[in-house]
Design a protein that fits this description.
Elements: H1 4-8, E1 14-25, E2 35-51, E3 56-61, E4 66-71, H2 80-89, E5 96-102, H3 111-127, H4 133-148, H5 155-162, E6 168-172, E7 178-181, E8 187-193, H6 201-219, H7 238-257, H8 262-278, H9 285-295, E9 300-305, E10 313-319, H10 323-334, E11 339-342
Parallel strand pairs: 3-5
Antiparallel strand pairs: 1-2, 2-5, 2-6, 3-4, 6-7, 8-10, 8-11, 9-10
């Protein structure tokens, strides 16, 4: 694979990286002030930057072998908004050469957040920005909202900026308080890419967010985080009731997962998938098939879709030492489109 020097014929001024993440519990709750339990994955995105002395940004993706030229102050197209959003919000007024490469799979593992966090880390180093890890994550969220057009919550960027691979990170997405939480004893995380492209993820995500915001408005609460009993949702229109029920019960599942043993945690993951499939309606038939195969394996405690949905990745909690063998057995039955990501 090419390097910054191969493309731009000199060394970069700065290089930084950031990991993708997988979320074990707490899906589609972070834009309603809820609780989430992500962990970082080993795969990372790396961004190298160098000043070019022009009024144009030159953006090169080693993965897609594509170079984009964007005038300073403009947003650009394709993958450019993720980068130019970071540059604009960081006050960059000079032309930069930006080289990106990585192995974070797209589809539920926050490849976009890893790109934003890595870019912002590089800019922090290049310009000595006073930007701590939380402020950096929030700037990444702003990039999504204002430049990419996805009204995401804070989990993905917070996890990419702050999480490690050896624990889960409990995040209160309202207060931004967080703490490391150990994985259930005797268990390890397994991530499989379903091979289903997330064609409706962005439009569906924004639609679901609008629906739960309307549910909150009708209930007279700031966010569904303030609702703890499903009975409080009575009176909502049927569709909004389903959407809100997912958020309320998912928050409860995250809190129930703290300190749960592997069997109980797995059951919570199974219930989370059913809720995402039936109440939030963000799954996909092939993803459901893969989840069911995992849930039926003797060495899997539980499994669920992860990420925005409509395709993408699946996460499972496997018996320690058995994740690879379980994945191989499941993928043999699932078919050639799936592939193991972690471990």
């Amino acid at each position: 694979m090419s390097t910054f020097k191969d493309v731009f014929k000199r060394d970069p001024d700065v290089t930084a990286s950031a990991p993708g993440r997988v979320n074990l519990l707490g899906e589609h709750t972070d834009y309603q002030g809820g609780f989430v339990l992500p962990t970082a994955i080993p795969q990372r995105t790396t961004v190298s930057i160098g000043r070019n002395g022009t009024a144009e940004h030159v953006l090169h993706s080693a993965n897609s072998h594509k170079t984009l030229h964007v005038p300073v102050g403009e947003v650009g197209t394709e993958f450019a908004p993720y980068l130019t959003g970071c540059l604009t919000l960081s006050g960059v007024t000079e032309g930069l050469d930006v080289f990106i490469q990585g192995n974070v799979p797209s589809g539920g593992l926050s490849s976009s957040a890893a790109l934003e966090v890595a870019t912002l880390r590089a800019l922090r180093d290049l310009y000595a920005l006073e930007l701590d890890d939380v402020a950096l994550a929030l700037r990444g969220v702003k990039v999504e909202h204002e430049f990419v057009g996805v009204k995401c919550g804070v989990m993905d960027q917070m996890a990419s900026s702050l999480a490690g691979t050896d624990t889960m990170l409990l995040i209160d997405t309202r207060s931004l308080e967080r703490r490391a939480v150990p994985f259930p004893a005797g268990a390890e995380v397994l991530v499989i890419d379903s091979g289903v492209p997330r064609r409706l993820a962005e439009s569906g995500y924004n639609e679901r967010r609008a629906q739960v915001e309307e549910a909150s408005r009708l209930l007279g609460v700031k966010e569904l985080r303030d609702v703890t009993e499903v009975s409080a949702l009575d009176g909502l229109p049927e569709l909004l009731h389903k959407r809100a029920r997912h958020v309320v019960t998912e928050n409860a599942r995250v809190l129930a997962g703290l300190g749960a043993d592997a069997t109980a945690f797995g059951e919570l993951m199974n219930a989370s998938h059913a809720s995402l499939r039936d109440d939030y309606e963000v799954s996909h038939p092939q993803v459901d098939e893969l989840v069911a195969l995992l849930q039926g394996h003797a060495d899997i405690f539980g499994a669920r879709m992860t990420g925005a949905g409509f395709g993408g990745a699946v996460v499972a909690l496997a018996r320690s030492g058995q994740a690879t063998a379980a994945a191989d057995a499941v993928l043999w039955r699932y078919g050639p489109t799936g592939r193991r990501v972690v471990p």
